[in-house]
Amino acid sequence: MASEWNDKDIDKKQLLDAGIDLNDSSRAGTFMQVDNKVSLSGSRERGVELLPIDEGIKKYPKYKDYVGKAFNRSGQSIDMETEGGYLLLVKEGHTVMFPVQVCLMLKKKAFSQKVRNLIVVEKNAKAYVINGCTSSKAAEDAIHLGISEYFVEEGAYLNFTMIHSWSESVEVMPKSAAIVKAGATFISNYVCLKPVKMVKMYPTAVLAGKGARASLNSIMVAHNDSIQDVGSRAILEHPYTSAELVSRTISLGGKIIARGHLYAKAQDVKGHLECQGLVVSEKGNIHAIPELETDYRDVDLSHEAAIGKISNEEIEYLATRGISEDEARSIIIRGFIDTDILGMPEALKKQIEDLKERLTAEGM
Hints:
Elements lengths: L11 H6 L11 E6 L2 E7 L4 E5 H7 L9 H5 L12 E5 L9 E7 L5 E10 L4 E10 L7 E10 L4 E9 L5 E2 L2 E6 L4 E8 L5 E4 L2 E4 L5 E10 L4 E10 L5 E10 L3 E10 L5 E10 L5 E10 L5 E9 L3 H8 L5 H12 L9 H16 L3
Parallel strand pairs: 1-5, 4-6, 5-7, 6-8, 7-9, 8-10, 8-11, 9-12, 10-13, 11-14, 12-15, 13-16, 14-16, 15-17, 16-18, 17-19, 18-20, 19-21
Antiparallel strand pairs: 1-2, 3-4
Helix pairs in contact: 4-5
């Protein structure tokens, strides 16, 4: 599979900034789609299938009935023509030792990429996924629309990290929904540190069985003239389920709407929503919208939200140690972008840390 990365038109740095490992020997599988063409697809582990969506449903016809099911369960309706995308299947009882990586890339000017993805982690299976989305310099005024559905079966575990590394004129509107069965865990991470024209997404997790757990986390940086309307929602349908929604947002001059919604549709559930925002530029704007909703009395739902700026005291403290004002701001911003919220193993956390350091050094 590694030889496929030799396409001279693919910007290798853009792939790295999207978390894609070009030495894919450290990956359990790799899928890549450029515009509407699948250029790379395959798995290195017998318990993992990673196929173009049409090919995958043809091979596993029972999953055809899964298409649209998670959106219907979460109260959403999706009616859009798609072209491409992938089926990721982690088979029952299988633990994926290395992460699976997926790359969706825009290369043509003004191209609209519309993909459908289906991720199924069968009973008692475990997987980590890195989904890197990026665009080449030529992809001006392009649009990405992705429809993704996750099915985490009984006792299964899925950690899905989406890293966006677009260009300044790209608009991004992914839609996603997850069904998390009894005793299963779903962790969804979203990271966007580079400039993008607009991002709008609101992933929803439905906790559909006793003991199901979900954690939806996001780290966002909005540059000048950027709009990011990003949130997450958890619907707790069964007793003894739990959910945590956490976001870290930084405005360097752009606008961020940070949404969060916890809905208790059963008693004896627990949920927490946390939103922390940092406005660095006078032009910046952050709007936090936390929502708690319940149909029952015996629930434990909580939220905390805070928006502020870098304080003069912090700058002055670092200045006494010989650090310039610009360096001090970078240190504070790096500290605020807390990768511990992502719930990733150390190897993947280091990859995010390296990306964060590189982008901060470049002025993000």
